[in-house]
Design brief:
- The strands form 4 sheets. Strands 3-4-5-6 form a 4-stranded antiparallel beta sheet. The protein has a 4-stranded antiparallel beta sheet with strand order 7-8-12-11, with no helix packed on it.
- The chain is mainly β.
- The longest helix is centred in the first third of the chain and has 12 residues.
- Helices cover 6% and strands 45% of the residues.
Length: 208
């Protein structure tokens, strides 16, 4: 598979890194899962102002998170611990972890540094259990490199989720149970109608 390499300098960390990306994900190991959980849980305990509550239409197209009361802190009502892992998408030196329960979805971007996963920011939004493409966004790593991602839920029995970028690249998302996710570098768009869920018979159906 083709590999795209991004190079950037981290403005919030004293290191430079190269991020490799591929259209096919790597199967995460148990070590990846433990390290991702540790890295992604840290921002939830950093104190007020460290979380971004989303759910706005620009990211999710779902019901926004209700605003806290006038005397509440900036993180009022947000989770302080990670929900269970829904899916972990590992590609090259980057990863996207999604944790979800009946109330919240926590999306966490990660970069590999010296063999360990380092969080690049998390986003907290309402859970989205219905099948379909339920979230997609463009943000940035530490250092400013743009990164995009999408994910959601699929019907039981789905064995693959793929989509096409605007440059013609076909990407296979990571799939765990009925949750899927994929990250890709830059601000490239997803071709309309190209997100497809396939079953064991290989027949695909568009999502979203």
């Amino acid at each position: 598979a083709a590999v795209l390499v991004l190079t950037g300098a981290g403005s919030l960390a004293p290191w430079r890194t190269t991020v490799a990306w591929a259209a096919e994900p790597t199967t995460p190991t148990a070590t990846d899962e433990r390290a991702a959980q540790q890295a992604c849980a840290a921002p939830l305990t950093r104190g007020p102002g460290q979380l971004e509550a989303t759910g706005a239409a620009s990211v999710d197209g779902t019901t926004p998170v209700p605003p806290p009361g006038p005397d509440a802190g900036p993180d009022a009502g947000l989770p302080t611990t990670l929900p269970p892992l829904a899916v972990l998408d590992v590609r090259g030196d980057g990863a996207m972890a999604v944790y979800q329960d009946a109330t919240w979805r926590v999306t966490c971007l990660l970069r590999r540094q010296d063999g360990a996963w380092v969080d690049q920011g998390i986003t907290v939004g309402p859970a989205a259990p219905a099948p379909g493409v339920v979230y997609a966004a463009t943000t940035s790593w530490v250092g400013g490199d743009a990164v995009s991602y999408l994910g959601g839920a699929v019907p039981a029995g789905t064995t693959a989720v793929t989509f096409a970028l605007d440059d013609g690249t076909t990407v296979r998302a990571s799939l765990l149970g009925t949750s899927f996710a994929a990250w890709f570098p830059g601000e490239r768009s997803i071709e309309p109608g190209s997100v497809v869920a396939s079953g064991i018979d290989g027949v695909g159906a568009p999502l979203g």
